[in-house]
Predict the structure.
Amino acid sequence: MRLLLVEDDLMVGESVQKGLRQDGFAVDWVQDGEAAELALENGVYDLVVLDLGLPRKDGIDVLSGLRAKENSVPVLILTARDAVPDRVRGLDRGADDYLIKPFDLDELAARVRALLRRRAGRAEPLMRHGDLVLNPATHEASLAGTPLALSAREFALLEALLDRPGAVLSRAQLEERIYGWGEEIESNTVEVYVHSLRKKLGTGFIRNVRGVGYMIPRRG
Ligand code: CA
């Protein structure tokens, strides 16, 4: 899952980016409101973590602009403890959730997972597909009850495909899901991970749609 982090405080930004990456998210970080708008115009994000007090353009204006363009990406806003009116305004302008600074990184990651679940229309915290079960919170996976050893990027790739069963994701779209800006992308990386996932899951699980990309068929 690819997240956009918008935060001008360097210490907060660095620790949030690091923490969310450790939780398996690809995280792009920008430090002002205009850079956030540019990133949102050019990139596809699964969720935005948005500080409200930002240079160049206020977070509330970034949020309003996003919703005015009918972009429905989940947005979690970060606000100060005493800023109740900010939180109310943020939620009323289209934010989906908020956290009060200072916050715990584990709580942030849990809220992010909850929003991603809701976006995908899932009430259940575990992702299931037939015999395959993924736990996005712990990164544990099992097939027919047997634990599967998956690398962080294998897990991320599988999670991206399982998030939208039946949808074909191109190699570029999959790379976007598993790498943030500045992370070294090796060539053929998606093919390599798909190959290794097929060995672990069985060859028919991930389908190759020739010239387009990869998909996991919808069940039933
Ligand atoms: Ca700020």
In short: The chain has a mean pLDDT of 93. The domain at 127-215 is CATH 1.10.10.10 (Arc Repressor Mutant, subunit A). The first helix runs from residue 10 to 22. The chain has two domains: 2-120, 127-215.
